[in-house]
Structures are given as structure tokens and as C-alpha cells.
Amino acid sequence: MKRYECLKLLASMLGPEVIVVTNIGPISREWNALRPSDANLLQINLGLCAAVGMGVAVSLPKRQVVLLDGDGNLLLNLASLADLANQNLKNLVHIVLDNESYEGGGGLRSATAGRADLAAIARGAGVQNANVVRTVEQFDGAARQSLANPGHHFIVAKVEQGSVEKLPALTLDGKEAKYRFARYIESSEGVQILRPRYTHI
Amino acid sequence: MEAAAVDAVVDGLKKSGVDFISLMPDSDFSILQERVANDKHFTYVPVSNEAIGVGVCAGAWLSGKRPALLVPTSGLLVAAWPLTSLCMAWSLPLLLLIPYRGDIGDAFWLMGPYKDTTEPLLKVLNAPYSVIAKTEEISKAIIDAQGSTISWQRPVAVLLTGETIK
């Protein structure tokens, strides 16, 4: 199963209001090509995709939040799964595109290429809806079912290494990403986030 | 921490607009943690390590919350990478509240190394800080730190020492 095929299917399922938080590396570039939007929070560094997504999902309980995580990203801070489970979220679909490697870092094998089973770990951490999919058809079904039902869903999609040719360059850095996402939340939620103050003393 | 110091911290957090708190459970802040966990004013997200806490607060701030992270002294070292890869790289604000174990006067030998790491690390992380030793100064220090972190878009810390963490 190719990651890009899964993401292409997912992009066709999401409304423009769905917030998507993604792992750094090829996932960000592919997702940006498939669903360019200021509702995306791209390029979250290793160990932090689930954590940042938790902050977003807890803060915006009425918004659907999708995390496009990587096996290496999640493995670095596995405790995020336990902390996420304890939040009893109703608005989270956490998808791990598990290529069993650190593709963005050169392709060396991750622990899921060995004995580690992220879905079993998630269940042990308290995530009740945790499943593994291995075909595009299975991914399609699991994604649709998760998006249609409020809850905290966890899908491990076993994908091949490798991306597609000629992806558009992702020219956004973190500083620009911050302003674009924050301005989007300001306008869609009617809140003020960026609030320079001239004095507080 | 004595009740007056806990009251002062909660007062400062509320007056400064903080409405979201993440923390790693820690003995120095245990009474404070109970207070904020049971106070409906705050969205409360306990985490299993401080790096996750930085990520949670970053997501919360980007989503319209005013977060603060309560960090055990040693946990600042755990938080150092996401303070770099998120807060420094993205220019994100974050109010850090840290009990300053290992400050002069802290007789526990195991805390000694944190005198060497805490302030230098905050400087390296481009996170200005205040060191507060008097309970009466806590609330204003938190209000000032929150104003600065929002204005400067980088983390600002309040280190609590002396009578404030007795």
C-alpha cells in the first residue's frame, strides 16, 4: 500500500474545516500537494505530532482534528498515546502512516520493522478504537468509519517506503506556518490569538 | 509550597489570562497541581513528560488558548528539544513556571546540578526569566512574564525559589 494513495483518498473525504496536523518529512509534502490549506499544521518535528495535535484537539473540541503521524515520530514519545487516551477526546482521528522506517532521515528501519505493534501499544495506553490496515480498501473503510463517528480513533496504515515524483516544493517554514494557521483559527473561530501588546507593566 | 504561594500563583495565572495548563506531576508543585486540576477556569492537560507538555501547549496556543507549562526543575532539560524545535523554530510564546530546585539554599545534594543547568539552559533557549523568592512578588511576575511571552513570541519563564516553594 502506498502512502500517497491513502492520503489521496483521505483528502477526498475531508471538508475544508477539518484541521490536519502532520509529521515532518514526506507526509507533509504529500499532504500539502493533495490538500493545500491554512487548516493544515505541517512539519511537526519528531516526537511531537501527537502532542501538538493533542493541544489542538483539546482546545477546539467542536472541530474535527486529523493527525497524520509517522511511526518514527510517534515512537519517540509513545507516552503521548496514554496522555491522549486520558483526554477522552471525541474529535480525533489519529492516523500513523507506518512505513517501518525513518524515511525522511534516510530510510533506516524503525522499531515497527521489528516487533513493535503501535496499535497494540495504543490499546494498552487506553485508546479503545485502535486498528491496523494493510490495503487501500481497508484504509478507505477505516478512515470513513472513523471520520463519521465521534471519538478518539487510531489507525495504523502499513505503507511502503517511497513517495511520488514531482511533488510541489513545500516552501513554508515554521514562522510562516504559525501566522497562517493562527490567522485561520482566528477567522474561523472568532478568537484573537496574535495579540501584540505595547505595554503590560 | 505553602497555601499563600499557591494562591499567588493561581491569582497571577488568572489575571494574566492563562486558561490552559499542562504539567508533569511533581512533588514541588503537588498542591498547586491539585488546585489547577480542580479549577474549571483552566483546561487541564497532565502529561507524562515535559517534551509532550511543550507540544501540547504549542497546539493549544495556535488554537486560541493561553497556555502555561508547569515544569519540574529537572524536566526543563527534557523540554529543551521541543523548546528548540517548536518554540525557537516557529517563534512560539510559552509561559514556563519552574520551581528552582538547586538554587542556593536548597540543601538536597541531588538538586545541586540544576544550579548549573537551569539558568544557562534558559539563556541558550532564548527564554528570558525572572527569579522570584518572595511570595508577594509571584502574581505580578507571572502577569509580566505572560505579557512578555505574548509580545515577544518566545518562551518566558518564572523561576520560583526561596520561601515561594517552601
Task: Give a summary of the structure in a few sentences.
Chain A has 201 residues and is an alpha/beta fold.
Notable characteristics:
heterodimer; A: 201 residues; alpha/beta; Rossmann fold; 40% helix; B: alpha/beta; 6 helices
Unreliable runs of chain B: none
Overall number of structural domains of chain B: 1
Whole-number mean pLDDT of chain B: 96
CATH topology of chain B: Rossmann fold
| The CATH superfamily title of chain A | Thiamin diphosphate (ThDP)-binding fold, Pyr/PP domains
The N- and C-terminal alpha carbons of chain B lie at a distance of 5 Å
Radius of gyration of chain A: 16 Å
Mean pLDDT of chain A: 95
| Contiguous helical run count of chain A | 8
What does this structure look like?
The complex is a heterodimer of chains A (about 200) and B (about 170). By secondary structure, chain A is an alpha/beta fold. Chain A has a single domain (about 5-170), classed as Rossmann fold, CATH 3.40.50. Chain A is about 40% helix and about 20% strand. Chain A contains eight helices and eight strands. In chain A, the strands form two sheets. Chain A has a six-stranded parallel beta sheet, sandwiched between helices. In chain A, strands 5-6 form a two-stranded antiparallel sheet. In chain A, helix 2 (about 25-35) links the parallel strand 1 (about 20-25) and strand 2. In chain A, helix 1 packs across helix 2 (about 25-35), helix 1 runs parallel beside helix 7 and helix 5 packs across helix 6. The mean pLDDT of chain A is about 95. The termini of chain B are close together. Chain B is α/β, with parallel strands linked by helices and about 170 residues long. In chain B, about 45% of the residues lie in helices and about 15% in strands. The model of chain B has no long low-confidence stretch (mean pLDDT about 95). Chain B has a single domain (about 5-165), classed as Thiamin diphosphate (ThDP)-binding fold, Pyr/PP domains (Rossmann fold). Chain B is built from six helices and six strands. Chain B has helices at about 5-15, 30-35, 50-60, 75-90, 115-125, 140-150; strands spanning about 20-25, 45, 65-70, 95-100, 130, 155-160. In chain B, strands 2-1-3-4-6-5 form a six-stranded parallel beta sheet, with helices on both faces. The interface between A and B is large, with 44 and 39 residues.
